[in-house]
Amino acid sequence: MASGSNMMAPICLVENINGQLSVNQEALQILGQISQPVVVVAIVGLYRTGKSYLMNCLAGRNHGFPLGSTVQSETKGIWMWCVPHPSKPNHTLVLLDTEGLGDVEKGDPKNDSWIFALAVLLSSMFVYNSVGTINHQALEQLHYVTELTELIRTKSSPTPNRGDDSMEFVSFFPDFVWTVRDFTLELKLNGHPITEDEYLENALKLIPGGNPKVQIANLPRECIRHFFLKRKCFVFDQPTKDKELLANIENVPENELDPKFQEQTKNFCSYILTQARTKTLRQGIVVTGKRLQTLVVTYVDTINSGAVPCLENTVTTLARIENSVAMQKAADHYSEQMAQQVRFPTDTLQELLDLHTACEREAIAMFMENSFKDEKQEFQKKLVEIIKDKKDDFMLQNEEESVKYCQATLDQLSVALMESISAGTFSVPGGHKLYLETKERIERDYGKVPRKGVKANEVLQSFLQSQMAIEESILQADKVLTDGEKAMAAERARKEAAEKEQELMRQKLKEQEQQMEADRRSLEEHMAQLKEKLEQDRESMIREQNMMLEHKLKVQEDLLTAQFRKKSEEMDAEINQLRNMIETENDSHLILEALSIIFKEFIAILFAKPVGDIVTRMSSLFKKI
Hints:
Elements: E1 11-17, E2 20-23, H1 25-32, E3 38-45, H2 51-59, E4 78-84, E5 92-98, H3 110-122, E6 125-131, H4 136-141, H5 148-151, E7 175-181, E8 188-189, E9 192-193, H6 196-203, H7 212-227, E10 231-235, H8 243-247, H9 259-275, H10 289-304, H11 311-341, H12 349-370, H13 378-413, H14 415-423, H15 431-448, H16 456-477, H17 483-561, H18 565-570, H19 572-585, H20 589-606, H21 611-624
Parallel strand pairs: 3-5, 3-6, 6-7, 7-10
Antiparallel strand pairs: 1-2, 1-4, 4-5, 8-9
Helix pairs in contact: 1-10, 10-11, 11-12, 11-13, 12-13, 12-17, 13-16, 13-20, 15-16, 16-17, 17-19, 17-20, 20-21
């Protein structure tokens, strides 16, 4: 179960024991192993209304979620069944069956409200199951939807002059499906046939009048219309007239069920399996099984603490967990790619830095893909530091390998020289010339050896310096040379040594410039990918807000059409506020300001020099981003 899941039977996800909710660790482990995106379908409704039967149908099984034939509620808490999605490749279908609402055996009715709220928060499609018709009584029984404003918060701190933040529920609430079981009416309105959806929308129309009873009756209607962008209805005939068969419906062969009920069930399953969306949070954050695991734990812990689940806080908690993993995954990818592709010692420093740049680009892209809501780029800054440290480690290893290889090469090439020195071969008239020829031959042979690495000149220089005293001794002992010739030879040797030292310094300066350029490329890559991600986030937020605005305008238009002018005018404030939010999000200066701040922070990490002069040198780079 590396990426998906195919459970043979459901398991309790959220236990409800004596009014206390707790999360089943075994179920959490199952979710934690699902790396695929999840489509979450939750069903709620009064107890003994056949919710579990529909969920078993969605799973493609006759048995699974427990069905009961008594007046006792069979399901307690929230049960979960994870199966491969039959029509979305590489997705897992998560079915959540909830305990029946209104169970007389439960002591605390608040418990039902929390189960209802959890089902809304966790699902991407929310199915409300009832029996009979959608009438005043059915809507009264759906009072739980009116309590969501007290049980769910969008933001951690209230926005001034806004009251509750339920206006934003529509941006992250699931699609709403009302299933009506044992439906006996004709689908007609004023003598004309209507669809199931038209039946639902007609039932959700507000009742005219302003007295308290009417306001209370309208509240669930208003909440459903305001909170749920997409609504659907399915009605079902009785499965069979035979009471004995009804009591054991999971064991009844399909051909013994009412044909119309069979067709209605297939239509329902087809719609759910093709239309239920992948579970997402605000700004399009896709929920995987592992992320769903975090949501469940966070919501239940919050409820048990006596607080109200807050989407913003939950996403922040999820983001810290996910971003930490994304950062480590990106850093590991960099290390793995570098280790696989580098061949020590590299011929030049630039070869290593070019490889670093390519691997870092991949690592940054991986982090951007797997991270979200990285406030103040906390985790991206850590990634900058980690990769910089890893790059330095690779550079050090490259240098060490170069030194080791060059030293071994020189040791091998100078064997004859060292033996001749020990044997006194050069301690004869004309020995200095012979010594120089031997030393120059070693230098020529050393130069022909390929891929000596970045320390080739430094190791050679060190070798030559170690020979200076010996060369001077041989020079002074050579009786063929006059004092003047000896002085000229000594001066020539010092001049050559100085030139090699200067050449070595030029190489080091060049390598420092190459490192600066590599750090500049790192900065440019981080900034470019960050800018792209911030713009994508902004576009996602604007789409979300435009969707909310479109929904609000539709609700307002429906209110006007139904002659509810006052209620329509009451929506003006939140509609104007949404328009202002969209206008603010469209201001690109906000992204530039954020980039300007993080730009300086990245510089402070990447460059060891004082930030002031680096900022000046890099200002042209920022203008290009």
